[in-house]
């Protein structure tokens, strides 16, 4: 009986233990499940956060690709390594940036440049970061039948830079001014120019800051001119507060003020004015009468009474002011110390002195662009000539107007309005259309219905355009051209000279784009008179896009080889005066003058093709604004004007940038 009771007690205890074990197991399972759910939630949150950051990073990959498209090919090749490039996204909680890891230029001339960049995105709301390493292939996209302008401002002939000159470009984009001739920039405010290259002498004054100057002639830094790197095949002279951080010169150096960081020369050096000079490495003799930190030369050194020279070494001799002079740290001469303190650990003669020298600088060379308005007459939508007292217009590739030759005339007042500048088959002696009787098409919107847009002065062979606007397209003139008040959407080419006057704006077709040129939706003062008058060679109506023509990058061009004067180059001077704004590339076959208030949204070239010597004169306020250029406009591409040029049809240029591969970091 007792055993049975004991057994029953044991069975009860076992049941309790089983229940406890089951309870513990269930608790463990519940806790494990809760932990699993929590872990899954954390993972989902992390994945969600990472997804936001990764999405932002891929957006940054695309943004940086578009940024590379905006850069000149050579600028991409010279981009600094390990430089962070921020990407601002307005109103976003995401912080985007790119850092250049490497630039591979080994296949630059064949396959392109490979840019490796680390793209990083931080999402502040998700508190997550994603990084992607991307290799971009940058291709030098060019038009096969084009000339490429190699500088933002490309001038031939001596050039005077005065007044206020400013260049506006996207962040981290260098700018370049090339001059074939002398450059004089004494009384000037110069902003935004990175590189100045010249074949002649360069004189800089006022507060002119430049990263680099390269000249085949002599360089003078006067006033408050400030140059990071100065290179001259001739001499370099500093006066007053002229400053250079780094100098290379095949010729001699003359320092009469200012400040120098490091100067290298294959010639002699003359330091005359009290100022601070850093390191001088020379091949010729050095004459010092001011403080110099370090002078090493293969020539003789002469130290004047006020010389304060810390480290002096000569492969020849050093001459001191007197034997008690002590404004030095070290004097070492391979041949002799003359009139110097006694020999010591810091005054040494008879020991070998090695002085490394700079490489000899090579000349900066220029290729003169061809600029010939006569070669684009056949590609013009409207070609203007003055024949036997009448304005004759040759029309080509204009929708709704048959190709052919017309006269410009007027129709009489019809009780509602006047009708000026219509294309007619025939006109009378008063310039009125006699055929056809019914009105055809006008290509002018004057200030009023009673005003014409076009006039011609036979004595000076000068055309004047003034009005609200004219029909879009490429417009050619035999003779000189004055562009007056109005807003135009054209490429203007003149065989003579071009002058702007009044408050004038002109947009090159590639700049203003499809809507204005092909649908006649002018940004300012649209008119039904121009309905359907679009230039057919520029407009793809089926795809609703512009056909790419290098000629349509040009806003104004002047000058050419006159076939009726034995091929002599005539005209080519462009004067941008008064208050004018040009959207496109400016091509002057001879010289360029600016004055008043001038803004050019594009490149400028003046080729000095005229006979005799001339001068480019940039004065007044001149702004070269290369920010926010439209993708349809390529400022450095123009036709080659050789008769087989791509002026009437062209394949679109290569896109330029591809992503080769990418990986998460």
Average pLDDT across residues? 88
Helix/strand/pairing class, anyone? Answer: mainly beta
Q: Please summarize the sheet with the most strands.
A: 43 strands, mixed
- Helix segment tally: 4
Structure characterization notes:
By secondary structure, the protein is mainly β. It has three domains: 2-138, no CATH class; 209-364, no CATH class; 373-640, no CATH class. The chain has a 43-stranded mixed beta sheet that branches. Strand 44 (539-540) and strand 45 form a beta hairpin. The longest helix is centred in the first third of the chain and has 68 residues, at 2-69.
How does the SSE layout of this entry go?
Blueprint: H1 2-69, H2 73-77, E1 84-87, E2 94-104, E3 113-123, E4 128-138, E5 146-148, E6 153-156, E7 158-161, E8 163-168, E9 176-180, E10 183-185, E11 188-191, E12 195-198, E13 202-204, E14 209-215, E15 219-221, E16 226-232, E17 236-249, E18 253-265, E19 269-271, E20 276-282, E21 286-288, E22 291-297, E23 301-303, E24 308-314, E25 317-319, E26 328-333, E27 336-338, E28 347-349, E29 382-387, E30 390-395, E31 404-411, E32 419-424, E33 426-427, E34 433-435, E35 444-445, E36 454-457, E37 462-465, E38 469-470, E39 473-477, E40 480-483, E41 486-494, E42 498-500, E43 503-507, H3 509-512, H4 514-518, E44 539-540, E45 545-546, E46 554-558, E47 560-562, E48 568-570, E49 574-576, E50 579-583, E51 585-588, E52 592-594, E53 597-600, E54 604-606, E55 615-618, E56 621-625, E57 637-639, E58 657-664
Parallel strand pairs: 6-9, 6-54, 7-10, 7-55, 8-11, 8-56, 9-12, 10-13, 12-14, 13-15, 14-16, 15-17, 16-17, 17-18, 18-19, 18-20, 19-21, 20-22, 21-23, 22-24, 23-25, 24-26, 25-27, 26-28, 29-39, 37-40, 39-41, 40-42, 41-43, 41-46, 42-49, 43-50, 46-51, 49-52, 50-53, 51-54, 52-55, 53-56
Antiparallel strand pairs: 1-2, 2-3, 3-4, 4-58, 5-57, 29-30, 30-31, 31-32, 33-34, 35-38, 36-37, 44-45, 47-48
């Amino acid at each position: 009986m007792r055993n049975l009771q004991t057994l029953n007690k044991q069975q009860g205890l076992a049941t309790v233990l089983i229940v406890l074990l089951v309870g513990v197991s269930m608790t463990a399972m519940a806790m494990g499940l809760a932990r699993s759910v929590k872990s899954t939630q954390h993972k989902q949150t992390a994945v969600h956060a990472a997804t936001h950051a990764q999405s932002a990073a891929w957006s940054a990959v695309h943004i940086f690709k578009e940024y590379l498209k905006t850069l000149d090919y050579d600028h991409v090749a010279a981009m600094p390594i390990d430089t962070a490039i921020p990407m601002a996204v307005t109103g976003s909680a995401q912080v985007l940036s790119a850092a250049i890891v490497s630039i591979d230029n080994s296949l630059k001339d064949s396959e392109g440049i490979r840019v490796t960049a680390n793209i990083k995105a931080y999402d502040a709301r998700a508190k997550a970061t994603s990084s992607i390493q991307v290799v971009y292939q940058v291709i030098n996209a060019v038009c096969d039948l084009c000339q490429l302008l190699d500088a933002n401002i490309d001038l031939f002939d001596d050039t005077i830079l005065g007044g206020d000159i400013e260049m506006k470009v996207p962040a981290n984009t260098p700018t370049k001014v090339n001059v074939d001739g002398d450059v004089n920039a004494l009384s000037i405010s110069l902003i935004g120019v990175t590189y100045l290259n010249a074949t002649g002498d360069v004189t800089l004054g006022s507060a002119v800051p430049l990263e680099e100057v390269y000249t085949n002639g002599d360089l003078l830094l006067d006033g408050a001119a400030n140059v990071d790197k100065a290179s001259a095949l001739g001499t370099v002279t500093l006066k007053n507060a002229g400053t250079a951080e780094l100098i290379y010169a095949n010729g001699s150096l003359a320092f009469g003020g200012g400040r120098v960081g490091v100067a290298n020369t294959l010639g002699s050096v003359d330091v005359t004015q009290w100022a601070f000079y850093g390191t001088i490495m020379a091949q010729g003799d050095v004459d010092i009468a001011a403080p110099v930190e370090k002078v090493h030369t293969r020539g003789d050194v002469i130290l004047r009474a006020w010389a304060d020279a810390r480290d002096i070494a000569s492969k020849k001799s050093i001459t001191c002011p007197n034997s008690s002079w002590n404004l030095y740290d070290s004097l070492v001469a391979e041949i002799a110390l003359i009139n110097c303190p006694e020999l010591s650990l810091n005054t040494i003669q008879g020991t070998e002195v090695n002085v490394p020298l700079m490489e000899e600088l090579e000349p900066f060379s220029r290729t003169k662009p061809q600029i010939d308005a006569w070669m684009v007459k056949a590609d013009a939508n409207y070609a203007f000539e003055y024949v036997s007292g009448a304005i004759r217009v040759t029309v080509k590739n204009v929708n709704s107007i048959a190709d052919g030759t017309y006269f410009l005339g007027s129709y009489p007042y019809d009780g509602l309005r006047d009708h000026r500048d219509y294309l007619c088959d025939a006109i009378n002696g008063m310039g009125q259309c006699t055929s056809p009787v019914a009105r055809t098409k006008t290509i002018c919107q004057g200030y009023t219905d009673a005003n014409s847009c076009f006039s011609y002065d036979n004595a000076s062979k000068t055309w004047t355009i003034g009005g609200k606007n004219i029909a879009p397209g490429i417009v050619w003139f035999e003779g000189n051209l004055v562009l007056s008040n109005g807003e135009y959407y054209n490429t203007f080419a003149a065989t003579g000279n071009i002058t702007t006057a009044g408050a004038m704006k002109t947009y090159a077709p590639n700049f203003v784009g499809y809507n204005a040129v092909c649908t006649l939706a002018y940004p300012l003062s649209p008119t039904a008179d121009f309905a359907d008058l679009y230039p057919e060679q520029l407009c793809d109506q089926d795809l609703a896009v512009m056909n790419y023509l290098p000629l349509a990058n040009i806003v104004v061009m002047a000058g050419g080889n006159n076939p009726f004067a034995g091929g002599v180059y005539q005209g080519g001077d462009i004067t941008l005066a008064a208050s004018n704004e040009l959207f496109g590339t400016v091509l002057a076959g001879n010289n360029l003058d600016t004055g008043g208030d001038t803004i050019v949204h594009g490149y400028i070239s003046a080729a000095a093709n005229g006979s005799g010597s001339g001068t480019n004169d940039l004065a007044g306020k001149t702004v070269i604004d290369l920010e926010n250029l439209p993708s349809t406009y390529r400022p450095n591409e123009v036709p080659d004007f050789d008769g087989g040029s791509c002026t009437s049809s062209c394949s679109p240029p290569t896109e330029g940038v591809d992503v080769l591969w990418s990986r998460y970091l």
